[in-house]
Write a structure and sequence with these properties.
2TM domain-containing protein; 0% strand; 3 helices; mainly alpha; transmembrane; membrane; 2TM_dom; transmembrane helix
Amino acid sequence: MRHLANEHTIAQINPIKGFRIHLLVFILTIPTVWAIWFFTDKTYLWPLWQTAAWGTGLLFHYLGVFVFKRKAINH
């Protein structure tokens, strides 16, 4: 059995894995949010704000991992 206290360090050690987890959660959650909106009150397009905000965060996460790479710090 793995020790759960060390799980938070995996994304810090491997930023690509952290980004992939972020992307996966985005891909699974945003359609659910839009489905909730679709099957409930459609008078206000509230999922658009969540999609735009989270998409912006995902974009900056991508840029931080793949475009503006930081050198690995060896302890």
